[in-house]
Design a protein that fits this description.
The chain contains 3 helices and no strands. It is an all-alpha fold. Helix 1 packs across helix 2.
């Protein structure tokens, strides 16, 4: 695999975490407007994306394959839990 192929593999591995993290942050900012007023969308998005990337890496290590349905389900749950946690944390 050449450098360009490796680059696109890494981008395609990270992209679901970034996309779901950004979408979860936007929807949570919309749903919990008052609770998340002090948190910026960018902060929520990068924290959700980082947690989602950790889930994708854990799924790859545990199952040995990328793209398992259980890993993507865990990705969605974790990306939604990160902004929610900021609403319940004092």
């Amino acid at each position: 695999m050449d450098a360009l192929g490796l680059f696109w593999h890494l981008v395609n591995f990270v992209l679901p975490a970034v996309a779901v993290g950004a979408l979860a942050a936007a929807l949570c900012k919309l749903a919990w407007r008052r609770s998340l007023a002090r948190s910026s969308w960018f902060t929520l998005a990068w924290q959700s994306s980082a947690a989602g990337l950790a889930v994708l890496v854990a799924g790859l290590v545990i199952s040995g394959h990328d793209g398992k349905l259980g890993t993507y389900a865990a990705l969605v749950v974790v990306c939604a839990l990160v902004p929610w946690w900021k609403t319940v944390r004092p």
